[in-house]
Amino acid sequence: MSLPATLGLPVVAPLAALALAVALDLAIGEPPARVHPVALFGSLVEPIDRSWSRPRSVGVAAAVGLPTVAAVIAGGTVWGAAALAPRLGVGARLLAVPVAGGLLFSTVSLRMLREVTAEVVALTETDPDAARESIRALVGRDTGDLSPGALRSAAVESAAENLADGFVAPLVGFAAGATVGLAVGGSEAVLPLALGVAGAAWAKAVNTLDSMLGYRSKPAGWASARLDDAVMFLPARATAGCLAVAAGSVGALSRARSWAREPGSPNSGWPMATAAAALDVRLAKPGHYALNPTAAAPSVADAERAVRLVGVAGGVAVAGTAGWLAAVAGVVAWS
Q: What percent of the chain has pLDDT above 70?
């Protein structure tokens, strides 16, 4: 069998699903909240957020069980679509790819992140009070006394961090699952697709658990926070690389290294510090850290550049995911 033919069968389905998910994100932004799978998953997490006699045990069970449930449902839905397709008189991939693309779309968020960040940045110049209200969609800190420059700093920091959490991490999960499927699936095109979507759903579920439970004030959230720290190790650093490539400044990574460990999180400092270096601005959370401390706080123009930078870095992440999958398929084809 020729290499193009061998490559085409297993890898075309996850690549098509990836393209569809990105297209949907660009066109729509987010699924409606009432049917958003992440919102539905959040409703499963809410009952965990209460007092327990053995909170750590409950937290461990939730951290292990709930993301697994999300992954099984997502991957099983794709597999079920492929199994149903012949009964509808269509090929398995013709049904499984759009289902997988839709599910992957629900785990990634780039357009809304950029739109909310851009809105906050614009409001810092015209209506700082409204900016303090809008930025609550991005950050959890108290914004009541933040200056316009500090608000822009918080927006840029959050955009860089959420690029890792809300976009790159699901893509890494998708790539990891699809890689396993390509390695073990032979000519079966649906397995990489189903495992890829399962991986994306699992990564998104881990991050959602951490965002809801992973605080010192929530005893049941210890396991979720530690799991998220482990899962985000690679996506955070991959995001830093994407930001550096998008900025055309690989040297931003080496500059960021000295600041990346200042935030309390072992991971969030990497994309934030790289953004600070690439934009040559000071990103600071008062009383906690200052990244690129000798630079000025971001101006409106700097923050607008940050919004564009995040968009381009997202494109780099998509291209990297597609390139990785094609490379894996090539290795499998030659082996």
A: 95
Encoding tokens for residue 108? 């990634």
Q: Residue 44 and residue 73: Cα distance in Å, rounded?
A: 14
At position 91, the amino acid (one-letter code) is: G
Q: Return d(Cα 160, Cα 271) in angstroms, integer.
A: 5
Orientation of helix 148-163 relative to helix 233-247, angle to 10°:
120
CB under 8 Å to 17, separation ≥6 — which residues? 97, 100, 101, 104, 193, 196, 197
Q: Is the pLDDT of residue 6 over 50?
A: no
Examine the pLDDT at 22 and tell me if it is beyond 80.
Answer: yes
This prediction has a pTM of 0.93
* 36-42-43 Cα angle (round to 5): 95
**Cα–Cα distance for residue pair 97/83, rounded to 1 Å:** 12
Hey, what's the torsion of the CAs at 141, 226, 315, 25, to 10 degrees?
-70
The tokens describing 148, both together, are 């316009």
pLDDT digits (tens, 9 = 90+) for 40-99: 898 889 999 888 889 899 999 999 999 999 999 999 999 999 888 888 776 666 789 999
Q: C-alpha 119: how far from its chain's center?
A: 21
41 close to 48: Cβ distance less than 8 angstroms: no
| SS3 category, 2 | coil
How far, CA to CA in Å, does 209 sit from each of 142, 200, 268?
A: 22, 14, 16
Number of CB atoms found within 10 A of residue 46's CB: 10
